[in-house]
Amino acid sequence: MEKLEILSDAAKYDAACTSSGSSRSTPAGGIGNCFTAGLCHSFAADGRCISLLKVLMTNYCVYDCRYCINRRSNDVPRAAFTPQELADLTIQFYRRNYIEGLFLSSGVMRDADHTSERMLRVLEILRQEYRFGGYIHVKAIPGADEALTRRLALLADRISVNIEMPSSQSLSRLCPEKTKSSILGPMGFIRDGIRENSTDLVRYRHAPQFAPAGQSTQMIVGATPESDLTILRLTQGLYKKYQLKRVFFSAYVPVVQDALLPAGSKPPLLREHRLYQADWLLRFYGFAAEELLDEEHPSFSPYVDPKCNWALNHLEQFPVEVNTAPYETLLRVPGIGVKSAQRILTARRHSRLDWPHLRKIGVVLKRAQYFLLCGGKAPEGLRVTQDGVLRALISQKDQELLAAQHPQGEQLSLFGPSQEQLTREDVMQCLTGQI
Predict the structure, then answer these.
(1) pLDDT higher for 336 or 5?
(2) Total structural domains in the chain?
(3) pTM exceeding the 0.70 threshold for the entire prediction
């Protein structure tokens, strides 16, 4: 239990799933329970939430990455599971209904191959000795032999390699013992393995599956000077070149002191949130990174989400007629998501849509009304200007901030104060917004 407390706490900075923070026992006659240490959540393809044991194999590490709490030079309690201990712990938690699967990562003990062998042994015990069929997500170790990575991918459901820094310059500055090629190499190997396996499964029905849930990665935001545009371009490139299922962003948390790291005490939560919103636009809404940001405006607006920001900067493309606009155009309207756009296509085959219809379908009219026409008509009395729409979309507190920064008669800007200047209340207000 002492090892579990140390190694589950050390794993909490990995943003590849959602951490839990409560412990509750089951009363007599009750059903279900939860356990604080190491519990996190992922989601199945059908939307079902899966509870996972999120833990490190060890927090001993030969690397001295400046931002990492487990770096070699940091004075923290150290621990390491044996493969048998961790496999037994996983099964005992599963039998108690604490978890449904395992999220396994590790510091690099001795070298990449030695660490990968220990992680592989955990998966072999679970899959072969316990015949465990639950979900397993494992972090591949950059620099490990490809044969070890292949065996990990054949036993795990999802495998991932953390890219860590948004640029090779930042990686060499903060992680001098790591290289870009040592990270991208395993990504390419896993991509090729998934691609080959997809054809083998067609030929041979009982062929073992290679990372059937795909691969993902994570990068830290706010520890280095790269702009949102740079990060978004990298994200777009990773999706296209390596066919990743997901890129996760982790707001830099200042857990260690270093002259090369930002001195601020608050993680850039709003910036992380905006990047996740933009990531959603890249994957499901047909946007490109260069459409959302450019060299003149390399950072996201702190006041509105990226989709609203794009629409306000391209008012010449609006309003669009909801009864005739193609699916791709509807997706670009603020307040219309993937499901509501599909419902619009289905509903307008049977009748012409009006504003009450759109509300029933699930369109967020508070936003969409400025960018749509129903039967060639806009809502009565509605005037659409960039400043007016911006004021209508943001909170009263943000309106006061904008008014204070822009004297009477001066054009309002979508790119106001930096995210780091916002208060916690501002961040929480923005986090409750939806695309």
Answers:
(1) 336
(2) 2
(3) yes
